[in-house]
Each structure stands twice: as C-alpha cells, then as structure tokens.
Design a protein that fits this description.
- The complex is a heterotrimer of chains A (about 450), B (about 140) and C (about 425).
- Chain A has about 450 residues and is an alpha/beta fold.
- Chain A has 3 domains: about 5-80, Ubiquitin-like (UB roll), CATH 3.10.20; about 90-210, Alpha-Beta Plaits, CATH 3.30.70; about 220-453, no CATH class.
- Helix content of chain A is about 20%, strand content about 20%.
- Chain A has helices at about 20-25, 85-95, 110-120, 155-165, 195-200, 270, 275-280, 290-300, 315-330, 360-365, 445-450, and strands at about 5-10, 10-15, 50-55, 60, 75, 140, 145, 170-175, 180-185, 205-210, 220-225, 235-245, 250-255, 305-310, 330-335, 375-380, 395, 405-410, 420, 430.
- Chain A is elongated.
- With about 140 residues, chain B is of the alpha+beta class.
- In chain B, helix 2 runs antiparallel to helix 3 and helix 3 (about 45-55) crosses helix 4 (about 55-65).
- The radius of gyration of chain B is 18 Å and the shape is elongated.
- In chain B, about 40% of the residues are buried.
- Classes of the chains: A alpha/beta (about 450), B alpha+beta (about 140), C alpha/beta (about 425).
- Chains in contact: A-B, A-C, B-C.
Chain lengths: ~450, ~140, ~425
C-alpha cells in the first residue's frame, strides 16, 4: 500500500492509501467525536457522531467508514456544511433518553457523553413533559461487571468485543428501535477471563467495574504508566492511585494501556485485579537493628551458600544478585515449577508462567532446580523457599510468610520500586515508581547499600 | 427440559440445508419451526437452533427479539393482531380495537398487514380476517375461543 | 382511461394461480422461449432499453442494476425477490403472488438467465402466510413440471419487520442476523449474500419482465412517459368508494385515477389530502392532487415521490394531526435501532406529537418537531429516517393550522 497525501483543515498529511480517515483524525487529535469506533474493534457506523465534510460530497460522511483517497480534502469542523450543528443535534438525540445519573455514576470524569456535551453540546433539556425511555439498572453481569441499560448509547463496542475478541458471545443487543438494550441471555452471566475490558471500552457509564464501584472519583486519581507483573506477558497498564490526606497511598485500579507490541488494547481480569494483593500483608522487619551484623556473620560462617532468586524481581535486581553470588561464591537457583499453570495459558494474552520476569531468569541460565544442600540460603522473595526446611535462611520478602528465618528483611513491592522487566516474547519495558508511601519499605537496591554488599 | 425438533422438521431441515450457501441462513426458518412446534420459542429451542446453525445462542436470541412475530413467552390467551396503521384507521380499525377490549383475548396492535382495501382487518394464527365489522369479529371469536 | 393490463391480465381468471390456467393463458410461452434463445447480456440490453424502473419504491432503473452483477464470477450469483411489502398502504405484490404466481416464476427464470444465477430466493413477509402457501403451491407445480430444472426457487419467510424490506437489511435477515441495514459502499456495486453477488428486485419488477421479453422494449415504452415507461399496480385505500389495486400506465392523472377506479370519495365528501406512494412519501393537499400525475418525475417536481404508488386518500373530515401521529407510531415501532438519529428521533417525535395532541403542546413543540426531522435527514445509515423526515415536513408544512389549533395559549412548551 502506497503513501498518499490528503488535506485536513488546511494541513497536508501523508497516510497509507486505503486506511480509515478516522485513524488520521484521531492521530492528529482533530476535534471529532465518536462513540462506536475503536481501533481494536473496527467501525460500526452507528453513532453517526464522527461526521465530517469532504469536498465533493454533498452530504456529511462518517470518518470511520471513509477510506482515504489521494487528494481528499477534509473539513473536520465543516465549511459549507453545518457540521458543528449536526454534531450538536445528534448529541442531543443521544442525551434525550440518557438518565441524569452523573452524581452517582462512576464514569463521571472519564465519560465521553459528558466530554462531548461540554465540547459540542451545552443544550438545555427539551424533554419537558415527556417520558424518558426506561430500562433495567444496576444489573450484576458477573465477572465484576455492572450493567446499567438506561445509560447505554448502543455503540455496540461491548458486543463486538465478546464477538470478535473473546469469541464468547455473551453480550448482545436485544429488542428493536429505542426499546433495544444490551443484555446477556436470560440467566446467563459474563464468564470470560477478559470480561472487565468492556468496562474500559464502554464510553459511558453503562458498563462499570463492580470492583471500583463507588470507590473514588476519577478526578482524584493519578495515573502512572506501568506494567502488570502477574504473568510473563507483562501487559502495559495504568496504575490509578491517590493519597488521601493523613492516609497512605492506595491503588484503586489497573487499566490497560495501549501497546501494540505487547498486549494491544486489553488485559486479562486476573491481571487487572492483581493490584489487590500487592499492598496487603507486607513483610515485617525482624532484627532490623543488627541486621547488617547478622547478615555478614552468617555469610562468613557458611561454606556452601545457595541463593534463591524470584522471577518477579526487576532485571537490574537480578543482575545485582548474580554479581553478588559471584562475589560470595554462591550458587543461584530459580525453580520454575511453582510459577507454571498450564491451564492459565490461552491464545490471547495469558502466559502459563504466572510471574513477570521469567525471561530474564532463563536468559541468565539460572538453575531451574531446588537447592539440595547448603549451609546458608539467601532467599530473594522466591515462593519455593517455603518448601525448604533449614534453620539457616535469610529472606528478603515483599509479603509475610510462615518461613522460619534467621533474618527477614522486607523489600518494596514493584509498585513502590522502579526497574525493567522482559516479557516472554523478549520485549523489555521500564516500570517507574508508582507509589510514594508515608513510611517506605526499602527496595532491594537500598538493602544492598545498607548492608554494604 | 430439552427441546427436540420433530422427525418431520428434522427431515425438512436437511432439505433446507441444501438450498442455502451457508447453514446460518436457516436461523429464521428454524425459529419459525420451533414456534409452530411449541407455540413459542423457548431458550431450549434457541440452544438447539444454535447447534444446527453453528451460530452462538446469543445470536439466535438477538434475532428472535428483533422480529415482532416471534414470541418468546408461552401464550396464555388467543393472540389477535389488529392492523392499526393509517389506511385501516381511516376505515374504522379503532372501533374494532375498542370492541376487542371486552373480549378475553390478547390484542396486538400490528402495523400495516398489507390488506388496505379490505380494512379493518385482523390476523389470528396466520389467517387474515378482512372487511371486519363488530358482528364478524364476534362470529370469528366464537369459533376460535 | 386506457385499460392497461401488463401484469394483471390474469387476475380475474378462476384458479389463475394454478399451472394449468397459467399455461393456458400465455405463461411459460413466448417470453420464456425468447429468453432462452438470447444471450444473458442481450436480455439485460432489452431490459435496459425498456427503461423499466424498480417497483419497490425506489424507482431505480432495473437494467442498470442488472449490469452491476458480474457476468463471470468465482462465486455463483443469486437473485432475491423482495416480497417484504410492508409499506403502509401498499398491497400490490400480494395480488401477484396469490393471483398470478406463475408470472412471477417466469420472470424469475428469465432474470436468472440474464444474470447467470441458478438459485432465486423469494423473501416474503411473515404476515403473508396464506399467500405464501399459494406461492409455494405454484413453485411445487413448477418443480413437478420440470420448469425449475435450471433454476431453484426457495421461499424464505420474514417475521414482522418493515425494515427488512430495505434491500441490505433483507440480505442481513436472510443471512440469519438482525435486519440492520448495511453501510453503503462508496462506489456502485451489486449486493452481497454470504459474499455472493446478489441482485435484489421487487416482485412486480420481476413480474414485468415476461411482458417486456414477449413484446419487446419498444412496446413497453408505448405505455407511460419517457422517463417512467410502462405501468404500475397502483393501490388505493382510505376514503374512496372502491378500494383496491388497479393497474394503470405511468403519467395517468391522479384525480382521474381516483375517480375512475376508486369511484370518487366515499359518502360524497370532499377530498382533503392524498399520500401518493405509501407512507414514506410527502402528503399532497387537495389542490396538488388535482394537478398530480402518477409518474416518478412529476411527483418529484411536486416535492413528493411516487414510491410504491400506494395512494392513501383522506377526506375533508380527516384530522391530519392524528393521521401524522398514526404514521409516527409506525416509524417508532419499525425503527431497527441501529443508528442514533433514527432510534432516538422516531421515539422523540412520536412522544412530542402525543404531547401536542393532548393539548399540552406549544408552537415551540411544533418547531422542535421540524428540527428533529431535520436532524434525521441525510445522516443515517439507510433512508428510513429521511422518509420520516419528509413525512413530518410535509404534514406540518401543508396543514400547520391544524397543528397550531391544539395549542393552549398558556401551555408550557420548551423553556
């Protein structure tokens, strides 16, 4: 496909011949509203909001169904045609039956209807004396998804998602005309492992997360780009968090972040909800006053030192530990068996390795074995440490466990740390520090400094 | 409780499969068959149709709710569809509708039944009753109820 | 008035629907023989020259449509005959399938030869079950007689959706899906049924083919006007003495038609208005009716459309506001709901008119109706909403005083 030139609002752009006009308009951030188009789902042409003026066409055309042609001239705000009025009028039609739920709707603040109303609408209600169409509200669809049929604009993104992406066909538009609404089949629920993505796809508050329901207003949340560390796919995410006055940092939710190299537009539900376990039950420090002494004393005393390295650590941390192993002549191990769950793997995003950085472990050829005999075990957060019975364990842990140790040193979880991870396909991403706690736990790097390793 | 097409219907289905380039086209014919067999379209029938057409049950269900003539609930009373569109309204369909209010039937306000020269009309169980008067309505209902 | 019977010549015969009577009266005779002696492209040329226009409401040139079908194709071509006839006031196709189904079958055979199709489907509306049985009987007779050896015919029953008369929605329905009209392609091309090139034509259009083949394109053009040659099964209902379907050539004066075939207005009343072509066309007031001619170009010049040629006649006592309300209820019920302007606009305009009728409306509500009508025009996936738009505009435009009469001076309208 060759590159061609088209003109949008007076500026010239080079695009692939045959690509959709709306893709360019989104890329150049032209002010063109749309509900039903989505890059991953394609166009449906039903919302009629993305209409623009194209020279040579007497009627406005929807940008999502218009492939670009050489020499096309587009006026996204309309020159001869009243595009702005058309947008306003179609938006008004979207709003007439929309319940004024904003004060109790989670979507407020990230709602397309609200945004477009402020940008293109600002109408007064003309429904005086007329009954709005009503449907069912707060339906629990299962998989942490709540449905409010009245708020729906029938963009069909959610039904196209369950049809084309997950192929599970749970959602559909039922009924006809303005009685049409989104539903599952009677007595059936949403049961696929990617179900919660419909919450992100829904441009309004029709599909919301039960997990996030009534938790926080989105304008109080800070978003930081990060990576999901639940499995080896390392899907790109946003971490939404905030810190209420006098309280500590709290994560409210993970959302998928567009990354065409890794996860596309979606994440799995398990990864999405993995934020819950992160900050619960953090490891407590024991013997923190003389930790340095105990540490060095134990190392000096031991003849044979084994080191367990968890595959959830960052690339830089793993390298640092390996260098330390060389220094103290210790053998490094990373048994994989506890990470592997073949039933978790699918042909979309989920990997059978339920840990983030197994690729780096494998790259450094760390032994895929349990250490057999040792005088001292240095455990860097590996879950298999629980299977080893020994009085001589020093453990660096993110969370509490029943492990009997000489010394347990707490380390920060990945959201309170920064570093890079490499996913199962070999793609490396940098994870910035997301949370700044009131009383921060040291990272592994900081412990190495403190312990003078 | 499962749904099974009758033997006759199953044979008919095999015939129909040969007539279309794709088995999904059988969706509407099968919905009709199920409705004639049971009097309405049950969820179990939808599952069975889904197996034959290879369309997911949700697709069958979406289609069934789209069309006015498909009934998804067991009928309790005799269904009487009266045309209420303009040509019939101009010729007295309102009177027929009012008269039927007093009868023990389920009244459906149907849109143009394509019988405008013999209005007012009503349709019961696929049969069209034309040139209606209130007396004719009573005669027909007496026979059917 | 010229007696024109190009399609309806056998309607009056006893048992006209049977093969025996049909064959004895000219069906499967000259026309079919001529067609089999011609090449496909030659048949299309004749149809093109005849100027035959589609009789489903759009009036597009049939020959041009046939030319969009590929003569050579990897995937076989199909013919789909549109018998979804749900346009209010229209009941002409039912006459053909119940009184002369073999004429339709003959037309199908010739058309299939022209577009090189081996299978024709007849999509018939769900409510026409008794007529479908007659048609199926005729198809069975044709099979037994060996007439369908080169071309299969399958009747496909709809289930009560006006929108499935729109050709792309019809094909969606036949593919086993909801009847949602498809987005229109950027350039003219044929229709697609499971990715097979498909021609969709109205019943009467196909039923007109045998006459054209038998008597030639010139003969067909001797009826009607230059731009609208031939004839149409016009239908008449409402406040006339003799309601029914009566064939007439294009160009006939509407008022003469109403007098001659309809026997004039019932009960000696005066004419008030006529909806000329089924409920999707602009209403004509009495003055316009007197000047109206029944052909596509004249109707267009008057700001209306011929549509399906189904005249709904209204006398002086008709309440035009209630008549419009009736039509808005129809549109509200039949909207497929796919795209926003139509889904919400049909509902809103229906409710707004109900408010006006109840006496609680105001001038602003009437103007708002016109605004909604404007929003629905030209911005939707199919022409359902623009049709409603033209109906609302014409009713309010020509009978505004009746709408304003419902106003209460102190009524609260739009704030």
């Amino acid at each position: 496909m060759s590159l061609i030139k088209i003109c949008v609002d007076g500026e010239f752009y080079e695009v692939q011949e045959g690509s959709l006009l709306i893709d360019l308009l989104i890329k150049i951030q032209a002010k063109v509203p749309y509900f039903c188009y989505h890059e991953a789902l394609g166009a449906d042409g039903n919302c009629r909001m993305c209409m623009v003026e194209i020279e040579g066409q007497k009627r406005p055309q929807i940008a999502c169904d218009t492939p670009v042609k050489n020499g096309m001239v587009v006026h996204s705000q309309g020159e001869k045609l009243p595009i702005q009025k058309i947008r306003k009028d179609i938006l008004e039609l979207e709003l007439i039956n929309h319940p004024v739920d904003c004060p109790v709707c989670d979507q407020a603040g990230e709602c397309s209807l609200q945004d477009y109303y402020m940008e293109y609408g600002l109408h007064n209600s003309q429904m005086y004396g007329l009954q709005k169409v009503t449907h069912k509200k707060h339906i629990d669809l299962g998989s942490n998804v709540m449905l409010d049929q009245e708020r729906c604009v029938l963009c069909a993104r959610c039904t196209r998602f369950t049809d084309k992406i997950t192929h599970t066909h749970e959602l559909g538009i039922v009924g006809r005309g303005d009685k049409a609404h989104i539903s599952t089949m009677p007595n059936k629920k949403l049961t696929n492992p990617y179900a919660m993505n419909v919450v992100d796809l829904c441009p309004v508050g029709a599909l919301t997360s039960k997990d996030f329901r009534f938790s926080q207003r989105v304008w109080f949340l800070e978003s930081i780009e990060s990576v999901c560390m639940s499995c080896a796919k390392n899907c790109s995410i946003y971490i939404d968090h905030n810190k209420l006055k006098y309280q500590d940092e709290k994560i409210y939710r993970f959302r998928p972040r567009k990354n065409l190299e890794v996860n596309g537009f979606f994440i799995c539900d398990e990864g999405r909800l993995s934020y819950k376990n992160l900050l619960e039950n953090p490891a407590k420090n024991t013997f923190s006053e003389n930790a340095k002494e105990v540490f060095h004393h134990s190392i000096a005393k031991a003849n044979k030192i084994a080191v367990l390295i968890d595959a959830s650590l960052f690339n830089e941390e793993i390298e640092m530990i390996l260098n330390f192993c060389k220094k103290i002549n210790a053998q490094a191990y990373c048994p994989e068996h506890l990470y592997i769950d073949p039933s978790f793997e699918d042909d979309f995003l989920r990997s059978k390795y339920k840990v983030a950085n197994i690729k780096t472990i494998q790259k450094f050829r760390i032994k895929n074995d349990m250490p057999k005999s040792f005088d001292l075990l240095l455990n860097f957060n590996h879950p298999a440490s629980l299977d080893l019975q020994s009085p001589n364990i020093i453990s660096f842990q993110t969370h509490n466990s029943d492990l009997q140790t000489l010394l347990t040193l707490p380390i920060a979880t990945y959201v309170q740390n920064s570093g890079s991870v490499t996913n199962i396909d070999g793609i490396t991403q940098y994870v910035p520090k997301a949370l700044f706690s009131n009383d921060p736990t040291p990272t592994l790097k900081e412990w190495f400094k403190r312990l003078c390793l | 409780m499962t749904f099974q097409f009758s033997q006759d219907n199953l044979e008919h289905i095999q015939e129909l499969k040969k007539r279309y380039p794709c088995v999904q086209a059988l969706n509407l014919p099968l919905l009709w068959m199920a409705q004639y067999q049971d009097g309405y379209i049950s969820l179990q029938a939808i599952d069975e149709i889904s197996k034959i057409t290879t369309l997911p049950p949700m697709e069958i269900y979406r289609v069934a709710t789209f069309y006015a003539m498909f009934k998804l609930e067991k009928p309790e009373k005799l269904l009487v569809s009266v045309c209420k569109t303009l040509s019939c309204k101009l010729c007295g369909s309102d009177e027929i509708l009012q008269h039927l209010e007093s009868k023990n039937v389920k009244i459906e306000h149907a849109e143009c039944l394509g019988s405008c020269s013999t209005s007012p009309v009503m349709q019961i169980n696929d049969i069209l009753y034309e040139d209606l008067t209130t007396q004719k309505v009573d005669q027909v209902l007496e026979q059917l109820l | 008035m010229k007696d024109v019977k190009l399609v309806s010549k056998r309607f009056h015969l006893l048992n006209s629907h049977t093969l025996e009577v049909a064959k004895a009266n000219g069906v499967y005779g000259d026309a079919l023989k001529k067609a089999y002696d011609l090449e496909s492209v030659e048949i299309i040329q004749i149809i093109k020259e005849s100027g035959l226009r589609g009789k489903g409401g759009g009036g597009a040139l049939a020959g041009e449509k046939w030319l969009l079908m590929p003569q050579e194709s990897e995937r076989e071509n199909f013919l789909v005959v549109n018998c979804d006839e749900s346009e209010p006031g229209t009941f002409k196709d039912r006459q053909i399938i119940s009184k002369d189904p073999h004429l339709l079958i003959e037309g199908i055979l010739i058309t299939c030869r022209a577009i090189k199709a081996k299978h024709a489907y007849i999509y018939i509306r769900g409510e026409y079950k008794t007529f479908q049985d007659i048609l199926q009987g005729a198809v069975d007779e044709a099979y037994e007689d060996g007439l369908l050896d080169s071309c299969d015919i399958t009747i496909h029953r709809g289930a009560g959706a006006y929108i499935c008369g729109e050709k792309s929605a019809l094909l969606e329905s036949m593919e086993g899906k909801r009847g949602h009209p498809r987005l229109k392609p950027k350039q003219k091309e044929c229709e697609w049924f499971f990715d097979h090139p498909t021609l969709v034509n109205n019943v009467e259009t196909i039923a007109s083919i045998p006459h054209i083949l038998q008597h030639g394109a010139e003969a067909y053009r001797s009826y009607g006007t230059t731009q609208s040659p031939g004839s149409l099964l016009f239908a008449m209902s409402g406040h006339v003495n003799k309601r029914g379907v009566y064939e007439a050539e294009f160009g006939t004066s509407m008022w003469e038609y109403i007098q001659h075939f309809g026997g004039g207005i019932k009960n000696g009343k005066k004419l008030k208005a006529v909806i000329p072509g089924g409920a999707s066309t602009e209403v004509l007031n009495a003055g316009e009716v007197l000047n109206a001619k029944l052909d596509y170009e004249s109707m267009k010049e008057m700001g209306s459309a011929l549509g399906t040629g189904a005249m709904i006649v209204m006398d002086e006592d008709t309440n035009m506001v209630e008549a419009l309300k009736n039509l808005l209820e129809f549109y509200h019920e039949e909207s497929c709901g796919q795209c926003t302007p139509c889904r919400e606009g049909t509902g809103w305009s229906n409710k707004l008119l109900a408010k006006i009728l109840s006496g609680k409306g105001s001038i602003q509500d009437i103007d708002k109706l016109l605004e909604i009508s404007d929003t629905m025009n030209g911005k939707t996936i199919c022409v359902f909403a623009p049709a409603l738009s033209s109906v609302i505009n014409s009713f309010i435009g020509k009978f505004r005083d009746e709408f304003e009469a419902y106003n209460q001076p102190s009524a609260k309208g739009i704030q």
